């Protein structure tokens, strides 16, 4: 939570989203564009990193194998 309320890039995204329902800043080209969610496309997530580049958009495939397993299992053994 410190990164959200501590005066960081994430704080800027949060404030813009609260005020405009859009975390992006169309007037500043140096701000990382936060992609809009699109059903059917590969999900993306904002990664908080250490170092010179503190934010990056990455594919959210970290849980793909477990989710696929649970989906297949639920088809084989429905509740």
What does this structure look like?
The protein has 79 residues and is of the alpha+beta class. Helices cover 37% and strands 13% of the residues. The chain has a two-stranded antiparallel sheet. A hairpin with a 6-residue loop joins strand 1 (44-48) and strand 2. The longest helix is centred in the last third of the chain and has 13 residues, at 64-76. The protein is elongated, with a radius of gyration of 17 Å.
* Shape verdict: elongated
The sequence of SSEs as H and E is: HHEEH
Strand segment tally: 2
Low-confidence stretches: none
Spatial extent as radius of gyration = 17 Å
Trace the largest sheet across and list its strands. 1-2
Distance between the termini: 37 Å
Specify the helix fraction band. Answer: 25-40%
Q: What is the average of the pLDDT values?
A: 83
Give the percentage of residues in beta strands: 5-15%
- Helix count? 3
Structural class by SSE content: alpha+beta
For the largest beta-sheet, the strand count, sense and barrel status come to: 2 strands, antiparallel
Name the descriptors.
79 residues; 37% helix
Structural topology:
Blueprint: H1 2-5, H2 9-20, E1 44-48, E2 55-59, H3 64-76
Antiparallel strand pairs: 1-2
Characterize this entry briefly:
This protein has 79 residues and is of the alpha+beta class. It is 37% helix and 13% strand.
């Amino acid at each position: 939570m410190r990164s959200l309320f501590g005066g960081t890039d994430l704080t800027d995204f949060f404030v813009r989203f609260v005020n405009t329902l859009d975390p992006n800043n169309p007037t500043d080209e140096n701000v990382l564009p936060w992609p809009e969610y699109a059903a059917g496309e590969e999900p993306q997530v904002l990664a908080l990193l250490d170092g010179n580049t503190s934010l990056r958009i990455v594919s959210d495939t970290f849980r793909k194998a477990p989710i696929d397993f649970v989906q297949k299992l639920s088809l084989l053994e429905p509740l």
